[in-house]
Amino acid sequence: MAPPATSAAEDDLPPLDRTGEAARDAMVSDFLAGLDPKETARRLIAELEAEVARLESAAPPPKPLACKAGCAWCCHQGVDVTLPEASLIAAWLDKSVPPAERRRLVAAVRDVAARSRGLTPVERQRAAIPCAFLKADGACGIYAVRPLLCRAALATDAERCRRAFVGGEPGTEETWREPAAHAKQLVLGTAAGYRLATGSRGVYELHALLAAVFDKVDGAAGA
Ligand code: SF4
Questions:
Q1: DSSP 8-class letter at 204
Q2: CA-to-CA distance for 189 and 170, rounded, in angstroms?
Q3: Is the CB of residue 78 below 6 angstroms from any atom belonging to ligand 1?
Q4: Helix axes 206-222, 83-96, angle to 10 degrees
Q5: DSSP per position, 130-162
Q6: Atom in ligand 1 nearest the alpha carbon of residue 151
Q7: Calpha distance 99→107 (Å, rounded)
Q8: Residues 118, 5 contacting (CB under 8 angstroms)
């Protein structure tokens, strides 16, 4: 099986700051302790949510957030996830989604992975391919276990999101930067820790990684 695509070349990844270094070290500790990767993902989610709560008083967004139920322009881009996050999502789908709906989602994930293959992040955004988990009403179909970078995608101008993510103007969105920066360091640091512990890269595009996980899990089940 070919390794899943990533959204950036390894050399292009930004350096770790203190948050990233702490996430790297925590990932190595989790691995050496034999912690279930799903628990690592839950730890990361709790850490991000605590940081967003802290920022709300310490460094609030410059304008009121525009994010609300049903607004999903930002769900038309590639999303980087770590292996622990993918593990949590795959397990949640197995446990919480009826078999027929799971089969539909698996097919949708594979379809998006195929349509996105080989695209740069900007090309992927210009293509405006909706996330496989985006529901017709604009809700996230895996809200409870959604990726860190989705949780931290907080914007202050919905029209600029529309233009950036489905209007062919990538990079023009207006966001609350601090949560996104923190989430990115958690992702990069966790990936770096995974790489140190296992030798394999720990960050991949959401659909590419899940498609590979489904191939492995469903292939084993059918063997
Ligand atoms: S996982 Fe959920 S929040 Fe993230 S891009 Fe997909 S639909 Fe949107």
A1: E
A2: 26
A3: no
A4: 60
A5: PPTTB-TTS-BTTGGG--HHHHT--BS-HHHHH
A6: 3
A7: 12
A8: yes
- Residue 146 Cβ < 6 Å to ligand 1: yes
**CA 136 – CA 134 distance, rounded (Å):** 7
Place 7 in a pLDDT band, splitting at 50, 70 and 90: low
Residue recorded with tokens 């089969």: 103
pLDDT, tens only, 129-179: 999 999 999 999 999 999 999 999 999 999 999 999 999 999 999 999 999
Q: CB of 142 closer than 6 A to ligand 1? A: yes
Are 26 and 129 within 8 A, CB to CB?
Answer: no
> What is the DSSP code (8-state) at residue 10?
G
pLDDT in tens, 150-164: 999 999 999 999 999
Q: Where are the alpha helices (DSSP H) in the chain?
A: 18-32, 37-58, 83-96, 99-116, 121-127, 148-151, 158-165, 177-198, 206-222
Ligand 1 atom closest to Cα of 132?
6
Q: For Cα atoms 202, 203, 204, give the angle at the middle one, nearest 5 degrees.
A: 130
Whose Cα sits closest to atom 4 in ligand 1?
150
Q: How far, in Å, from the CA of 132 to the mean position of ligand 1?
A: 8
pLDDT at 216 exceeding the cut of 70:
yes
Mean pLDDT calculated for residue range 46-64: 96
Give 162 Cα–ligand 1 centroid separation in angstroms: 15
First to last CA, the chain: 16
